[in-house]
User: What shape does this take?
Amino acid sequence: MILSADEILKRLIDSGCTGDTPRSENPGAGSPARAIPIPGDRGGREMPCDGRSLVISPFSRESLQPASYDLRAGEDTTLARGTCTLLPTREWVELPHDLAATLRCRSSYGRKGIMIGAGYVDPGFRGQLTLCLVNMGPEDVEVPVGGRIVQMIIHEVKGGSALYNGRYQDSQGAVSSR
Assistant: This one.
């Protein structure tokens, strides 16, 4: 099942882990607090996240779509034609054991020839996502910091208990192959 915008927002609000609501303003969250690194935010913020919560931080309501969340570029970049470019997302993302995500390039960039590689996020992943963007179009494409470039489609995982614990856990910035 793909999560709708209403379900994504409900899960974020229930967890208190959107990154836009400090823990002190969310007394209903009963999980232990810890600092979530937020790109461009020195020191992170105290958020009640425990590995069982969905986290998208910093959260933007403008990025919430009917059945996805638009991830934003973490830095200004030029996608040179014929080249693969690694680009970090602006958001720090954490997926609990019952959610996974697929990444799809937004159609506005697809129409310019931009394709995304490596578009799956396992349950238990946490960190900034590194987008592998390939420009197959006829000209270079500018991507501004904060530009909505990729849709994250969140799927429910039934009966799963295994969590991602790979080389890219807690990634920050664009991370090359390890």
Remarks:
- The longest helix spans residues 5-15.
- The chain has one domain: 5-20+31-156.
- Residues 73 and 124 are 22 Å apart (CA to CA).
- The domain at 5-20+31-156 is CATH 2.70.40.10 (Deoxyuridine 5'-Triphosphate Nucleotidohydrolase; Chain A).
